[in-house]
Amino acid sequence: MSEVLLSSLAEPLTGDRPDALSVAGRHCSREELLGAAGAVAARIAGASAVAVRADASLETVAAVVGGLLAGVPVVPLPPDSGPAERDHILRDSGAELLLEAAEAVTAAVAGDDLGPGGGVAAAIETVPVDLRQRAAWSKAEPSPDAVALILYTSGTTGAPKGVLIPRRAVAADLDALAEAWGWTPDDTLAHGLPLFHVHGLVLGVLGALRVGSPLVHTGRPTPQAYAAARGSLYFGVPTVWGRVVRDAAAARELRGARLLVSGSAPLPAPVFRGLEELTGQRPVERYGMTETLITLSTRADGERRPGSVGTPLPGVRTRIVAEPGAEAGSEIGELQLTGPTLFAGYLGREEATAASYTDDGWFRTGDIAAIDPDGFHRIVGRASTDLIKTGGYRVGAGEVENALLDHAGVREAAVVGVAHEDLGQEIVAYVVAEGASERELIDFVAARLSAHKRPRRVVFLEELPRNAMGKPQKRLLPPPDAS
Ligand code: MCA
Ligand code: AMP
């Protein structure tokens, strides 16, 4: 194990293959990727941070690796983020350049597309990433403490915060996961997760590069695409695994895989059992956060239990802190962590960073957990109902409420996550509004933020339920089907 991130990430491998990296149907060898990434590094060297329009493409991979080579922090931008979200991320991160596939830049210049590089609200220079460009890069590895990635993630209120992820944390996490999952260059990793979050990008791309296993990114995480990918190691969020189980023919195609891994949200026990029945194997479940990377997992060579996220990865320590007033000896409470995979703070938000740690230096996950006598951890809930997990995406109720309130017809808004069989939770907005239809409000949020942050349902109320102090009371909202 090495805390140096690029030692294996960017070295040519013996046995390189022309299709070592395959993304959404296009492929390249590792050597070709590193050549393109070297050209990116030469172009951006010295920048304080660069944003990358993180669509599912080889160009996104080359841009991210180029940033890591050059030691420039990379800020992945969701490709469908609307102006409000996109401007916030670009301004808040201080990104000097926006990297995107050469084709996207040409389309935007021609006015065909108003994607992140087109219809620019926050002025930023756009740099095309062209896989045909090649350059060798041989500058020294930056310090392990340097920031590798700035990932934007939602809090309960306000706009998303930039999570500073040090190179050291990425290296430590990937090595620990490789050990827990028996992940080697002989594996082929397959998944179709978005490339702007930890799951798809850090584990799903940097993991494959660091371990040296070929990667098949399926573009979208559909059951059919997973069945066709012929991977040995598969990553998915519970929504994806639930859809796989509902497509028995696709699920049976995964019988030859070595390991199926689930994370980002709780894996329902029926989905766990469905996978076991249809694929012949029990999935590994692991737990993490953008701020901590992955910290708990069951193991390839150990027991895998429905509802359990296993034991701490090497170097990670956990404790459960019961709510004040809980019964003495209560085994359920907030999960707190320390270890080598933790973030270096929220960009420009010292108070929020300080508030996320206890006085004695443990990170407060905000998740409620229990530890079984044999050390296996179970995540049983979240402390705040204002953080919603939908399809594995973390969405802050406050950000969606603010977007709704920007609509001229909306006077009040309260957003909640409602249990949903496919998505885990679905976003439901309760509004006091005039002259706006449900569809209009859904599209309004999808266009300002990202499509996955849109409410799936809107409930119109005469007024929001409030307490005697006039504060809206989300727990008094009627069930969405009742109104
Ligand atoms: C529909 N669409 C719309 C609208 N309605 N677009 C704009 N406006 C509308 N009103 C479009 C979308 O753009 C999209 O197009 C298509 O409809 C479907 O989008 P969506 O509704 O998002 O799809 P879904 O089927 O609900 O998505 C399910 C999913 C997705 C594929 C499972 O939720 C997903 O990719 N989840 C992964 C999240 C993840 O990776 N989380 C990791 C966070 P088009 O199809 O063209 O795009 S990291 C983390 O949690 C920690 C570290 C950890 O532990 O891993
Ligand atoms: P994010 O910051 O998007 O990475 O979301 C992190 C949150 O996802 C955690 O705080 C948990 O609430 C949730 N999460 C991730 N993995 C799991 C899991 N295996 N089981 C339950 N919740 C999970």
Would you kindly provide a written description of the structure presented here, covering whatever features stand out?
By secondary structure, this protein is of the alpha/beta class. It has 2 domains: 1-383, 3-Layer(aba) Sandwich (Rossmann fold); 391-482, GMP Synthetase, Chain A, domain 3. 29% of the residues lie in helices and 26% in strands. It is built from 14 helices and 24 strands. It has a 9-stranded mixed beta sheet with strand order 2-1-10-9-11-12-13-14-15. Strands 4-3-5-6 form a 4-stranded parallel beta sheet, sandwiched between helices. Strands 16-17-18-19 form a 4-stranded antiparallel beta sheet, with no helix packed on it. The longest helix is centred in the first third of the chain and has 15 residues, at 30-44. The radius of gyration is 22 Å and the shape is globular. The site of methylmalonyl-coenzyme A has 25 residues, from helix 7, helix 9, strand 13 and helix 14.
Task: Write a brief structural summary.
With 483 residues, this protein is an alpha/beta fold.
Structure characteristics:
483 residues; alpha/beta; nine-stranded mixed β-sheet; four-stranded parallel β-sheet; 24 strands; 29% helix; binds methylmalonyl-coenzyme A; binds adenosine monophosphate
